[in-house]
Amino acid sequence: MNEASIATQITAILSNITGIKRSYDYDELPKQLTEADLPAFVVLIGPSPSRAVDHLKGGRASCGVDEVQDFILRNYIMPATQGRAGEAAGRAILYLSRVLDAFDARPHLVNADDTEANQDDFDYATAGVQHAFVGSHSGIVLRPYGPVEYFAIEFPLRIDGDRTTTKILNN
């Protein structure tokens, strides 16, 4: 699985959500967030549990590693010192369905509505994406970014992928 190209594609999807001002992947994080950046998403690579799966097909053994790569999509809403949790929740509610809808429409991180250039830049099969799924969110939480605490909401994104090697069985 190509985590770097997947993170770049996730960042592009988040950047196109109405109302999101900035989206950063783990490779381009600024030292601090400014008011002009908010609300902003930060894409972080999460845990990656893998499981090996052996398959026998017509005299060939395919030993594939079905990979699971989690990403954390952290939406920084506003500094905790500049608002109340209720105000942050009111702002966050706008993004809950938008984020879920954006990824539901892109089970491989692309769909027919994406621009042609975007599809050309990201080949989900080459990147190893079988399925992308956002299943929940954290609710409003406090998360630091640099020295500042922010009201934020986290969305776990699970990518199911694969790497397969095939060898001929000795008969």
Number of helices: 4
* Ends apart, CA distance between termini: 32 Å
- In what range is the share of β-strand residues? 35-45%
CATH-assigned fold name? Alpha-Beta Plaits
The CATH architecture name reads: 2-Layer Sandwich
Detail the poorly predicted runs.
55-62, 115-119, 164-171
The gross shape turns out to be globular
Structure, explained:
By secondary structure, the chain is of the alpha+beta class. It has one domain: 2-Layer Sandwich (Alpha-Beta Plaits). The chain is built from 4 helices and 7 strands, in the order H-E-E-E-E-H-H-H-E-E-E. Strands 1, 2, 3, 4, 5, 6 and 7 form a 7-stranded mixed sheet that branches. The longest helix is centred in the middle third of the chain and has 20 residues. The chain is globular. It starts with a helix and ends with a strand.
Keywords:
single chain; 171 residues; alpha+beta; Alpha-Beta Plaits; 7-stranded mixed beta sheet; 7 strands; disordered C terminus
